[in-house]
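hey can u run this one w/ manganese (II) ion bound, need the structure tokens asap thx
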Amino acid sequence: MKKEKSREELLKEKLFYKKKNAFDEKDENYKSAVMAYAEGYKKFLDSAKTEREAVKTTIEMARANGFCEYKLGDKIEKGGRYFFNNRGKSLYLFIAGTEDLENGIRICASHIDSPRLDMKQHPLYESDNMAYLKTHYYGGIRKYQWVTIPLALHGVVTKADGSVVDVTIGEDEGDPIFCITDLLPHLAQEQAQKPMAKVFSGEGLNLLIGSEPYGECDEAVKLNMLAILNEKYGITESDFISAELVAVPAIKAKDLGLDRSFVAGYGHDDRVCSYPAITAILENKDSVHTLMCVLADKEETGSEGVSGMQCDLIVDLMEEICKSLGGNFNVVKANSMCLSADVNAGYDPLYAEVYEKRNSALMNCGVVMSKYTGSRGKSSTSDASAEYVGKIRSIFDANGVIWQTAELGKVDVGGGGTVAMYIANHNIDTVDIGVPVLSMHAPMEVIAKNDIYEAHKAFSAFCK
Ligand code: MN
Ligand code: MN
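ok here u go:
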């Protein structure tokens, strides 16, 4: 016979907060839905290693779901599904809802750039019969993680005649890869004594790209590298000046763990939030609300510039929507709601000392809400209001979303920001919602399949 619950147990159930783990969900259909969703995500991750590739891949997905291209000034129709391609580097998907626009727009904003190594404008040089490309790292990397790993070159080169060529080397099975070399342990005694921040310098992160000379002359190896690039892409050395070439890990997304419960891959930050936001808006066929899914660039370097979230473009687009559908722009902004979709640090028991576990994101405990981000006394955060958090909380709970709250590590240990404050500064209520990540910003990051699935449920509920 089942023992009856004590008075204390019953009161605890009523009064205590208990974090839910997605594995408590015993339904077999749940597990198969989680595993199936992750398959689509892995494909997306592999085809979208840079912001440009993420834009291209998402446009294909959007077109297949009835979205058509919008240009500034075009007329927007109620019920219309549109994408706005901002210079191939950031993307806006939006659906014009059927309700009064002055009820506001529901916005999901994530970013599609990730930490990596950018090539300098004069990258190519030869040293002791080996050819290298000089890099300038992009975003917050821990330099030691980027040596002796396989790297691929991605990007575009604008030639003198204005034509643009796409470059991808290192992704296909038969492709060569590149790497940054490291010292052998036998000769690293002095290096090993240095503090970690001083072991690798930014100027030392030079990509090894070849060694065969072209005939007999000065800088014959450099010449051969240019000859190979010229044959394949028709480019010359001066074309590097108008290029965006980046080195990213030449790895594919893979299941991690005997149980395949995790996905390991490059660029989970922030594609693990972009993908569920994209699929949520694409799947939405009958929204009364006007919906917008923003895929921003430049988050990792401060959201500046024409493709970053600090650009006025988001409000320009909202204004255009107002012009077409009718609605007071300022009222629309004031009634809009935004989920800033970005990752959070997953609690890592190997480094427990930097986390305050009660307020940390646990892997498999669902999508994470962060009321505030920032650092040192909540500096640089929009800090969502209790009322807005309450509103989002009730949407998630009404739709059975498994979610938790967290901040990034212990107070004063570090911190970090997202695009939330740039959107909130436009008088739009915004809160951070994302997926917990292990080894964030490393060439290979780790997420739990349950958590991305819950992110998809969360964004879908928000769009409903
Ligand atoms: Mn991020
Ligand atoms: Mn980041």
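The pocket of manganese (II) ion (ligand 2) is lined by residues 269, 300, 441 (CB under 6 Å). anyway lmk if its weird
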